[in-house]
């Protein structure tokens, strides 16, 4: 799936949840509904994944958690040893 199409589907799912629920609910409600909406779109996703931090060569459990990871399959046609997606500084929240 192309990056633009994946982005469109994720944002579309988030907009649909917001249109159905409106503002003012707990984050956990929006997360549960977004998970259902992503499932309905056929996207593969994981929820509440730990995000360790590497500091001076040591991997530390940071207590950070990612709300969603969507379509985690990585591929690189130019260099198979290099993942096509690299994380630098993740945003704290998408929605």
Mean pLDDT over all positions: 79
* Largest beta-sheet details: 2 strands, antiparallel
* Low-confidence region ranges: 74-89
Quote the distance from N terminus to C terminus.
Answer: 22 Å
Can you write the helix and strand succession as a string? HHEE
> What Rg is obtained from the alpha carbons, in whole angstroms?
15 Å
Strand ordering within the main sheet: 1-2
Approximate helicity band: 25-40%
Question: Strand portion, in percent?
Answer: 25-35%
Q: How large is the count of helical segments? A: 2
How many domains, as an integer?
1
* Overall SS class: alpha+beta
Summarize the structure.
With 95 residues, the protein is α+β, with helices and mostly antiparallel strands. It contains two helices and two strands.
């Amino acid at each position: 799936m192309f990056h633009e199409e994946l982005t469109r589907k994720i944002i579309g799912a988030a907009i649909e949840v917001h249109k159905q629920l409106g503002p003012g609910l707990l984050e956990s409600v929006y997360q549960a509904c977004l998970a259902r909406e992503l499932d309905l779109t056929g996207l593969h996703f994981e929820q509440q994944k730990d995000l360790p931090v590497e500091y001076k060569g040591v991997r530390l459990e940071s207590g950070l958690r990612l709300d969603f990871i969507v379509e985690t399959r990585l591929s690189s046609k130019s260099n198979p040893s290099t993942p096509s997606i690299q994380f630098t500084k993740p945003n704290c929240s998408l929605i």
